[in-house]
Amino acid sequence: MYGKKKKYPMGGKLKGMSHDNGGIPIEVEGGEYIIKKDSVNNKTEPILEYINNNGDIPTSNAMNRSEVSYMGGGMVKPMYEDGGKISPKDKKT
Hints:
By secondary structure, the protein is an alpha+beta fold.
């Protein structure tokens, strides 16, 4: 049915046809993880690339962003990146 299957030993984003148009015949092995297309977007792709390239979860400024982030939360304002008390006014923003 398909020609030679493509191998992606280094991982990364695949380019080709959608499932509705035949998809991309690939060869995978146990332990590899496939992310559904709808979960890959401008916000998640840099994180997926970081994990693929480093085998670890990005933390702090690992992805060369100007903001400092933390697991399970959101972006931390630069003024609080070294800790500090948050005023009630800051909790609203």
